[in-house]
Amino acid sequence: MVSKEIKRTRWVIATLVLLIMTAGTTVYVTSMSANGRGWLEWLTVPLFALLFGWIGFSFVVATWGWIRLLRHRTPKNEPATGAGEKPPTAVLVPVYNESPEDVFARVEAMVRGLGPNHRFDFFILSDTNDSEVWLAEELAWSQLTDRLEEEVRTSCNVYYRHRRENVARKAGNIADFCRRWSDPYSFMIVLDADSLLEPDTMVEMVRRMEADDRLGILQVPPTPIGRHSWFARLQQFAAAAYGPVFCEGFDAWAAEQGNYWGHNAIIRVEAFCDCCDLPVLPGQAPLGGEILSHDFVEASLLVRNGWKVRLANDIGGSYEECPTTLTDYAQRDQRWCQGNLQHSRLLLSEGFHPVSRLHFFSGVLAYASSPLWILFTCLCVASWAWENGVPSDLVVFQSVAPSMLQFGLFIAAMAMLLVPKLYGYINVVARGQAWRFGGAISMLLSVVMEIVLSVLLSPIMAVMHTRFVVSTLRGRKVTWSSQQRGEHGVPMLQAVRDYGGLTILGAAITAAVFLFAPSWAVWFLPITAGLILAVPLAMVMASRDLGKSLAKLRLLVIPEETNPPEVYQLYEQAMLDSRKQWAVLPKSSMLEQLIDSPTFFHTHHEVLRASHAEHAMTESERKEVRDASRRLQVGKDGSSGVDVSKIPMEWRRALLSDIELLRELHVQTHARPKRLANAAG
Q1: Average pLDDT in the 648-652 region?
Q2: What are phi and psi of 93, to 5 degrees?
Q3: Is 234 exposed, middle or buried (0-12, 13-18, 19+ CB in 10 A)?
Q4: Helices in 431-565 by DSSP H: which ranges?
Q5: CA dihedral 490, 491, 492, 494 (to 10 degrees)
Q6: For the whole prediction, is pTM greater than 0.85?
Q7: Beta strands 265-268 and 187-190: pairing type?
Q8: Strand runs (DSSP E) across 575-644, as ranges?
């Protein structure tokens, strides 16, 4: 049952947003052309009302959060007791063609940080379909378990499972765990491949779930850390400086009907299994079929069944990584765009809580707002042209100038977008935490830099989001591929290929404005400047060297750089140790090492058996593999042997699931007389 305070908060926020939208729309209608309000102008009115109201909603939520933060609300954490006597909590790490070194280094850091007194069982749930990465995962898991057994006194276990068929992507991966291995666990913490949690955070998450038996999901907002490119540092700074303001405001109105972001959250297993069997949307993908952005829907299903979904924005110690280039960011957004647009099919579905519907609507509008803004701008330009006709000279359009009312609306909209950033700055300074951001002056300069770059990048992302939305509505599906998590630059040719069209578009808009309506040039500058500079922006924003130089100047600094979390230090050490182990491995492929090493072969066999992932190839397929692996030259000893490096890549994934054929190749390799003689000697 929602408290009266939460209901009052929701009514106040809704009333303020409605007042802002009504006032803005009234001023907009009043400011319409003195030549009369044409039908094109009237088409812009509902678009303006929706978009201005959307900005107003974000502003009101941020303002509410800022006020709450200024009241110095502090978390009421209580130490967990008797942790060793309680059943363990599962920690799920779904992976798909990720770097095994990185994934297992993160798991190792969390296990070492937890120590012997807390019981957490880590499950690396692999959906990897690259045979080399799959085998590297198994080897990394084997190395990690050996290190932990030798060096660490812990109550944690680390398990690895590989799924043969990637049914329903990440949601299906987690559902498979729930069906087969979740019985011993009351709670499961879901992570991403790049997630890190402080041990105290994990323990506190479990304590809060135990303290409230109606709490279905507790989401801890993840803070991006650990990247060095200019673009990544920009995201990290914005999340650290402004994120608490928005999260506090979100929690104020969402309360027990909050949202789930897919990772860095703890879930009550029984509730999840009972409520979160995802529906298959009618129709074909991309808007139909399997639900891609499953997290919003799972939270809504829990809320529909009376469970609480809360945001734990007072805990901290929750980390992730962010894209390091504009291109990587856009590729991730394209996947999210398709998933969020699917939620439009659920807006009017039966049984969902009104707040859950608002979450769906917000997710849709996060991407749909870009094409709506572009449509609004185009309709405004078209209405001016319609009113003035097609001029024989340029004098007519030079008389078209913004009125004071329109200028006031522009200032109001920009203020509602930018003032929340100042809220974040004031909140940090008021709490005496500016030193963690490099000092008050450095942080203020960082805020100014972030604002300027956000203005430049916004039109680029608006055009790209529009392209994603249109592409999705036209029926183009996004392929499910692993994310680019490493740091890398953007060469000029790639930047020109990806963003050259935007530069041409920006130049064309600028030329048209100066030609037909020069008095509007200043108004279009925030749009055209970013588009024209898209190519150099994409290149310099991806620069690690520039990002590191900014760090030396104390710009875009975040608290996790000033005082690195212990778990991140453990992760970096684990990465160093892991690289040393991998450096001494043979340079041959992972498949060759599997066939060559009895220990590795045994590990792979055990993983297949425990995962119930054994699957025999057909006899014709086996024959092709045998023929491909057979050596062309017979040795002096009369043996032909095998050369698995000749097996085509398209057969290797199926081969890894066929333990009988693998054993055959393994035995043939070790049955060669020379190898037996070496082994005996």
Answers
A1: 93
A2: -125, 85
A3: buried
A4: 440-473, 492-516, 521-532, 534-541, 544-552, 559-562
A5: -70
A6: yes
A7: antiparallel
A8: none
